[in-house]
Amino acid sequence: MRNCGIKFSHNNSITLLKTGQEKFDDLFKAIRQAHKSVHLEYFNFRNDSIAGLLFKILEEKAHQGVEVRALFDAFGNSSNNRPLKNKYLDKLRAKGIEIYKFDPITFPWINHVFSRDHRKIVVIDGKIAYTGGMNVADYYINGTKEVGEWHDMHCRIEGDEVNTLQKIFLKMWNKVTGQNIHGPQYYRGATNADYIKGLKPDLCESAGNKMIGIVNREPHTSNKIIRQFYLAAINDAQDSIKIINPYFTLNHDIKKALKNAVKRGVKVDIMLSIRNDIPLTPDCGFYNAHKLMKAGCNIWMYKPGFHHTKIIMVDGRVCTVGSANLNARSLSWDYEDNAVIIDKCTTQELDNMFDTEKANCFRLTQERWDKWRDPWQKFRGWFGHLLAPFL
Which of 4, 137, 223, 344 is most buried, judged by most C-beta within 10 A? Predict the structure, then answer.
C-alpha cells in the first residue's frame, strides 16, 4: 500500500463503535467538548431526530465561536426519504453552521449519478476523527420497517491519521466552496485532545501505538486504490479471511482472488444479509455468494436485519473499517475512505464480533440455496451479475 501512495503512522489509537447508539453517543459527546472546529463530511444527513439533535449541538458550538463546516452529497441527499430541504439549510446557515452540497443536481440530472461523495468523516479540533460506514440517520438505532435492524460500524481515531482525514476533508471543502481554509490550527500537533473526556476508550495494550493508514479513493487520482487494498489483503492472506459487506457485486479480480485463497488453504468466511434496502444489487450479491460457496468459501446469511457493515479481517492481524462497499460504485466511481489497521487486538475484536453474529445466520449450502432461492430469484441474480460494473 505504501507503493500505492498510502502513508502509515504508528502512534494511533482506534476505538471501534459497533452500533449506531455507540457511534452517535460518542460523537455527540466529543462535539459538545470541541474548542475550535468541527468538520463533517457525509453522503447524507437524513432529516430526522438524530440529524436534528446533531444540528442543535452544532448550532450551540457555532454560537460559542467554534468553526462548524459540513458537507453532504447532493445525490445522496435527494435519494434518501427524508432529505434536507433548501429552506432548512438556509436556517442552519443563519445559525452559524456552514453547510454545502457536493455537486448540486442540475439538468440533465443523469450526469450526477456517478462519482458521488460517499465518505463519512468527522474531525474535531484537528485532534480526533471519526470514519466508517454510517451516515446520519436514526435508523442506525431504530432500524426500519422494511429491513428490521440496521447494523453498521464506525471508529474513532486519535493520532497522526487524524491529520490525514483532516487533509481529505479540507481538500473537498475548498473544492466545493471555493474557499482556501488551511493552517496548522486544523491539524494535530504533539498531543491528543486530552480535554475531551468521557469517550469510549481503546482498551488494547497497543493503544497509542497502532499502525494505521487511510485509503482515500478519489476519481481520476486514485481510482484503483480500494481495489488494490482488497486484492493485496486477499492475495497475501495465509490463514483466514473474514468479510462483511452489504453490496457484494464484486469484480472479476476480487472473485478470482477469493477462489485462489481457498485453493491455498485459506479459510474464507463471508457474511451477507438476506434483507437489503435496494433492488437487484442483493440478487447479484447472492449469485456471487453461491458461486463462491461452490468454490469452498463459507457463506453466512444474516437474518435479523440489514448488515450495512463494510469490514475485512485477514490472518487476525489486519483489518479495515470504512465507507467502501464491494460494488462498482465504491471500487470504480465514488469518493471513499477506509482506515487500514495493522493491529492484532483491533482485528481480534472484529473477529469476535463476526463469530458472535454467526449465531444469527444460516450457512449457505446447495440444499439451502435451492430451498431459499426460487428459479425467478436465481435468474434475477444471474441477470444482476451481468450489470455488476454499474451496480
Answer: 137
272: left (phi over 0), alpha (psi -120 to 50) or beta: beta
Q: What is the structure's pLDDT at 14? A: 98
As a whole number of angstroms, the distance between CA 294 and CA 290 comes to 6
Q: Which of 127, 154, 310, 385 is catalytic?
A: 310
- Given 125, 152, 269, 334, which residue is catalytic? 125
The C-alpha cell 468527522 sits at 122
Predicted TM-score (pTM) above 0.85: yes
Options 3.40.50.300, 3.30.1540.10, 3.30.870.10, 3.30.360.10; which CATH number does 212-390 get?
A: 3.30.870.10
Q: Which pLDDT score is estimated for 238?
A: 98
Question: Is 118 a residue of the active site?
Answer: yes
Q: How far is CA 372 from CA 68, 210, 274, 381, in A?
A: 49, 43, 10, 13
- From the centroid of its chain, how far is CA 16? 12
Determine whether 120 is an active site residue. yes
Q: Which candidate, 286, 293, 201, places its Cα nearest to that of 246?
A: 286
Catalytic: which of 25, 277, 315, 351?
315
Q: Look at the block and give the residue holding cell 457536493.
A: 102
Domain ranges of the chain: 7-186, 212-390
* Topology of domain 7-186, CATH: Endonuclease; Chain A (3.30.870)
The yes-or-no answer on residue 48 being catalytic is no
260, 295, 299, 373, 383 from 365: Cα distances, Å: 20, 12, 8, 12, 22
Cβ atoms 320, 229 nearer than 8 A: yes
E strand or H helix that includes residue 69:
strand 67-73
Contacts of 61 (CB under 8 A, 6+ apart): 31, 32, 34, 38, 68
The answer to whether 7-186 and 212-390 have equal CATH topology is yes
